[in-house]
Amino acid sequence: MKTQHKDNRITLLVVREAGRPVRQVHLSKPLALVLPAAAALSISSLVTSMHFHASRSIAELEAEAASLSLANLRMEVKVADKDQTLLQLRSKVTELSEEAATIKDKLKSVSELEAQLQSLIETEQDGGADPDADKDSASISGDAVSGTRLTAYSAAPAANYKANAAGGAQSGTALSSLPAVSFRLGAVTSAIRSTVTPQVGGEYIAVYQEDPLGLVQEARDDYEEIRSLLDELLTSLSATITEAREVQSAEARLQAKEELAEKARLAPAVIWPTRSKIITSSFGYRSDPFKGVSAYHSGIDIAGNIGDPVYAAMDGEVTASDQMGARGKYIIIKHANGLETWYMHLNSMDVSEGEYISKGQQIGTLGNTGRSTGPHLHFQVLKQNKAVNPLGYVEP
Description:
Elements: E1 2-4, E2 9-14, E3 23-28, H1 29-126, H2 131-149, H3 157-166, H4 169-172, H5 180-193, H6 212-246, H7 250-266, E4 279-281, E5 284-287, E6 294-297, E7 300-303, E8 309-311, E9 316-324, E10 328-334, E11 339-349, E12 356-357, E13 362-366, E14 376-383, E15 386-388
Antiparallel strand pairs: 1-2, 2-3, 4-7, 5-6, 7-14, 8-13, 9-10, 9-12, 10-11, 11-13, 11-14, 14-15
Helix pairs in contact: 1-2, 1-6, 2-7, 3-5
């Protein structure tokens, strides 16, 4: 560097590569002093800016690290909850397995009892020498098993499921009224057997959206219900077998046959046709109220007030709803087993010929029409077109 004092300038010699000439740069002294200061200031600003950006980046990284740490903590809590849930599920599944084993044992007991019951039925069927007696005995035994006793199981889904699985004819017909457990079992069975595309619908809910512990508890409740119903079924079957064994003697079989025959004769159940229970004239021979001579009375007279409701004693079809001299306004209803019920001296009639009515349905009102001495209902029962005593079918 060479200083020239005349013009207060500074000369800078720039030595370049070998073989190339040296260059001179003339700068004023103030400029020569400002350039290093500007360079230093620029470098200082650059360092400060880099430091600021570095600090900001570090703060963002620290915030992100804190967020990741919180997320990791939450994930650990969820994993811990899942582990706890899995432990509870394993425990409940173990309990369900034990419950299933208990139910299997009870089902085996039910099968054994059913086999014993079937054996008793076959014994009843083969016990007599008279073919007709055998037939009646078989019918009675079947009724005693499938009608009298197993009707009590109609509310038992487990019983119905077992009957369907085993194909038991003696219990399948009586088990028709079922709660939710049997409905599920029946739906599964129908789905397996059906070859028609099911008409289904509903909202889609993925399995993972359900509470697993809740599902396990629901299954456990179903198991508990099935087990209680199996207990009831076992108790009832045991009682049935005991009773069946007690009636194996000839005298007991005959008594059971007579009792069941009487029940069959009275079936279906007959209800009293009026509110009043006062009988003013009975069935059979009596003194005629008009002529005072002996006459045959084909029904019973029930006293009452004009306008009192008259009810159908049984289900059936109205075969007559008319008015005739001696009968007054009258209704005839045809029932099962060759029975007919007649309602005479009515004040009004609420049903028409050809109409099917239900037991207990009001068909008219009590009156005093026709050959009558006062308000009453003449109630008459015919069996195979022959008048029989109504009190053999219904009591006041």
